[in-house]
Amino acid sequence: MQISERLDLTFSALADPTRRAILARLATGEASVQELSEPFEMSQPAISKHLKVLERAGLISVDIDAQRRPRRLEPKRLEEAVDWIERYREIFEQNYLRLDALLEELQTKPTKRKRKKD
């Protein structure tokens, strides 16, 4: 899968507040579907649908532990998204630095006023 496709899946998955809350919970440690569904007023099948989106995006993985199937955060995909955003942050920062330099240059230059010839 191309990085562009992975970013599409990642940002699409992150667009939903429930999925972001699930990721925040998994950042503190692995959890079962039941544990993940506790803070939400929705059914476990609804939570399972959110988990499938997160799994398809590669943001979480499933372990098989006897009768439990705990979910775990996979930070690599989030790191790809952070790297993508960081590139644009650096571009914007360079643009602002150039703008600051231009404004400073304009403020320090003596202004040339044209006088109308009589």
Automatic annotation (TrEMBL):
One of its GO terms (molecular function) is DNA-binding transcription factor activity. Coiled coil: none annotated. Pfam families: HTH_5. It comes from the Bacteria. SUPFAM superfamilies: Winged helix' DNA-binding domain (SSF46785). InterPro entries: ArsR-like_HTH (IPR011991), HTH_ArsR_DNA-bd_dom (IPR001845), WH-like_DNA-bd_sf (IPR036388), WH_DNA-bd_sf (IPR036390). SMART domains: HTH_ARSR. Residues 1-93 form the HTH arsR-type domain. PROSITE patterns: HTH_ARSR_2 (PS50987). This is ArsR family transcriptional regulator.
